[in-house]
Amino acid sequence: MSEYLTRTFFGIARVDITPPVGISANPWGKSSSALSKGVHRPLTATAVAIRDEDSTLRFIVGLDLGWIGCYECDVINFRSRVARELGIEIDDLLVNLSQTHKGPPFCTHEALREGKELVPAYIEKTINAVIDICREAALNISEVDITWGYGKCDLGTVRDLLVGDEVVVGYNPDLRADDTLVVGRVTDLSGKSVATFVNYGCHPTSVGWGSDLISPDYVGRAREIVESATQAPMLFLLGACGNVAPKIQYSADVSVADKNGEMLGYATLATLAGMLPPATEYRFQQVITSGTNLGDWQPIPVAPNSKVSAKKVGAKLPHKELLDEVQMRKLWSPVTANETFLNFRIRKQFEMRVDYVQGDGTVVHPIWIWRLGDAVVVAHCGEAYFEMAQELRRRNPRLMLLFLDMTNGPGYIYVPTRVAYEQNTYQSQQSLLAPGGFEAMLEVIDQELQNF
């Protein structure tokens, strides 16, 4: 019985990036004030360094942040600077955002509300912290084994709910989301736990506009549970979540986020508990005669897959008619809570087009594909409907697939299915992609995976 295994050179480092109380950290359109007045749980940045046999360094960074709204703040001022300081190519850096809705903006152009004066200094401090932990992770590199496993977690639910003639963003009890959880147990060659990868798709929207606390949402409590049990840092990587959110959400009570986090944290521990020892696979040995004939299976040492590679693919996808400001105001004013949030949505629409929309009716959607032994990381700058990851895993069972949303913006474009456009969902309204974009992107990725 084959297991999903990786042997590589790996280092990890962590830093607290909790902003000062008083910073703008309540981006909900419904909120009466954006001002933060306390901290639920700390926000963190976690960096993983991976070195291949050619000594090429690559980094994966997980940030407890919501989104980065523009090309200038993301590509130019953030990731290009980090890559330059580390002496790597920008495509050798994957920055995955947890998408908490209770953190500060990471774009100076989005700092529009109370507490905005603290945002520029916070961004600068956090960028320097990311550079520092990447360097620290690189210094911590040693040879490790990674044992990968698929688990299940019921935290995520479908959030496209038909109410009358309208589809709203809320729990739909009649549909079931993908419950796939990906866990990677990282151990040194003596078997000691070094880190845990957790890849799961679910919007961190447990905490809504009624709370004035800074919070990593469900990720914080999940991380606490896993790290307490393993005595090693956990790297959370947000998966396909375009139409997935917790059943209980939008709460003013942060204990809801903790309860949701317990669902993910304990599901992760259950998946870890089911793993074989590092660098082994389960093999049939013999038939043993007892009260009946018994099949004897044993964990047998094997040489893990050590292949590491990376590539970037530009998926050429159709875009829909691009609205001007007047059209956006007419369309969104009736469903937007206030003028400030409406202006933010309009500006974001224009920012998403920079270095993305081409002049021929298409966009180029960037996708990063990294092989880590038996595992493949597929990362993109958007929010795909869960069916994307689900179908890719169905088509490619030989690979352990980590699918990452919200990675290396800018824009964070929704990637909805054709059905979502037919239903006129929020995601299809906000996306720049035309119907068929989801399906075309799926085929591009699948073709790449078939050739891996």
Give an overview in words:
With 452 residues, the protein is α/β, with parallel strands linked by helices. It has 2 domains: 4-273, no CATH class; 308-373 and 412-450, no CATH class. The protein contains 10 helices and 22 strands. The chain has an 8-stranded mixed β-sheet with strand order 5-4-3-1-6-10-11-13, with helices on both faces. A hairpin with a 2-residue loop joins strand 8 and strand 9. Helix 3 packs parallel to helix 4. It is globular. The model has no long low-confidence stretch (mean pLDDT 95).
Main attributes of the structure:
452 residues; eight-stranded mixed beta sheet; four-stranded mixed beta sheet; 22 strands; globular
Report low-confidence residues grouped into runs of 5 or more. Answer: none
SS element count, helices: 10
Give helix % range. Answer: 25-40%
Instruction: Specify the biggest β-sheet.
Output: 8 strands, mixed
Q: In percent terms, what proportion of residues is strand?
A: 25-35%
How many domains, in number, for the residues? 2
Shape: globular
Summed over residues and divided by their number, the pLDDT gives a mean of 95
Count of individual beta strands? 22
First-last Cα distance: 21 Å
Secondary structure class reads alpha/beta
Lateral strand order in the biggest sheet: 5-4-3-1-6-10-11-13
Question: What is Rg?
Answer: 22 Å
